[in-house]
Amino acid sequence: MSSAFLNATTDDRSGLGVLVVDDEPVVLEQIGKALRRRGHEVSLAPSAESAARIIAERGNLGVVVSDIRMPGEDGLALARRINATDSRMRPEVVLITGHASVDDAAEAVRIGASDFIRKPLRSGEIASAVEAAMERVLARRRSFEAESDRLARIAEAEEEARRQRGEDPLTCIANRAALIERLLTPRRDPCGLVLIDLDRFRRVNEAFGPRAADALLIETARRIQQAAGRGALTARFGDDEFAVLVEGEAAMTLPALAARLHGAVAQQLGGGDVRIFLTASVGHAASPVGDGAACLRGAEAAIRNARTRGGDRVASSEEARADGSLRRIELAGALRTALRGNDEVGLAYQPILRCSDGQLLGFEALVRFSDPAVGRCDPDELVPVAEHYGLMDALGRRILRDALASIAAWRQEGLPFGRVAVNVSPTQLRAPDFAVDLCRMVSAAGLPASALCLEITETEALSEQALPTLTALREAGFGLAIDDFGVGHSSLARLRDLPATLVKLDRRFIERLPGTERDRAFFRGMIQLTAALGLTTVAEGVETPAQLQALREAGCDACQGYLLGAPMPSGDVGGFLRRGVPQA
């Protein structure tokens, strides 16, 4: 949460209050406190369900500020419910998201959200959005006071609300909702998008104050609009972000426009001992077939590329594709869509065998994702993207749901599948109710907790925050594995105190085997250390008979890898078990 809202009094709002909805208690309290300082009467709700009850009980709410991504019913569903009510009494909705996607933005426009704001939250932006939304509510409600002219006033108020919804109240240019709506309008001609992010704009606020910062934003909007020229749509895209959309032939000279906008924004501020030179990071993307959504994804990836290289530069979507930024954005969009269906996200199961005699001990469930646009994606690429874009909770639940369904099916067939290992992300582990929710899922599937072994990365397992959850999971009967052991920030003292049952040795250690005598001695030392702590060792990435023999000689307990068995779909596990595990 950024700095508090400016201390200011507000005019009479006829007793209309603001409802803030967010599942993060700290953010909820910060937004509520900030809005109260602005003179608003604020109610707080930790979920969409509790917000719906408050809305039903109170008739004097003017604005609902809601996070989009929440467990259970999300902010978009809440907004749909609100906008389905009587227009005379319904509040305006301002949506907040930390991972705004094209789909989320488009849906917000379709359901009539007043505005949507991206995290990290900034005082000026959210205050401006709430004030503008409150004005629209008052204008709409005042229009119903004269019953004799009711129908005419409704039409006038709705038209004014539509006009205001598309205009940024500070700069008087288009706002992000109007830009998204225009971007998603079907077209056949080329289009191009330029995003402009003011570098280190917070320093302007700190050095000159909020009034000077607002004046600078107004001046910057004027400069951008002038540089963009006629026919371009100029919009304020965030607190210190702007966008320019061009269509037709203008999209073919987008790099020149981006360079011109970069130069137009640069200016020196202040004098004497306090001087700041304002610069901007600029990203641009074009589509020869008029795909506005692709332009937005490409421009966002490009501007991220410009920022990571220090700012004050122009970057294209081609540069972003080269460094992987665009692929990550495209992957996040494809994954978000896939998680709403049932096909593209799946699991493959790789056998885990006892080193000494090759007996099957269980399987590891490995997530698989394939999309026509982004291709096949391995877990090492997929999981970080899901974490960054707020999709890990949904992906983690899908993985657990599918794994439990497979285990239940194998058990029904009487297959000797052992124990199934499932990776658990830091996001899932930090959720306060994760242990309770997982126990409910396992119980609903009719399975014992001992059927699952949860794999946690070494860094996350060693954190103090994770210890209560790990202890609760171990006490419930789940196996606990420290994944990729030896490549993170190892702490032998902490490892001794963890409620883990086994450690998985990273494939980077196995790749060096059989190696030199020093390599083998080092590996034997790791095996002996974990054995002294009462932990089972599992070696990952075994691909050659020589590696397997080295593991046996070192006393490693278990192993997995393509030498012993490739990952397979759930439906192939039965045949694998009936044929018998091949001896390596």
From TrEMBL:
Chain ranges of the Response regulatory domain: 17-134
Keyword Zinc-finger included in the entry's annotation: no
Cross-referenced CDD domains: EAL, GGDEF
GGDEF domain segment(s): 189-319
Domain (EAL): residue spans on this chain: 328-581
Keyword vocabulary terms for this entry: Phosphoprotein
InterPro entries per UniProt: CheY-like_superfamily, Cyclic-di-GMP_PDE-like, EAL_dom, EAL_sf, GGDEF_dom, Nucleotide_cyclase, Rev_trsase/Diguanyl_cyclase, Sig_transdc_resp-reg_receiver
Signal peptide (residue range): none
SMART domains to which the protein is assigned, alphabetical: EAL, GGDEF, REC
Top-rank taxon, per record: Bacteria
PTM annotation (4-aspartylphosphate): residues: D67
Keyword Secreted among record annotations: no
Name of the featured protein: EAL domain-containing protein
Source organism (scientific name): Roseomonas nitratireducens
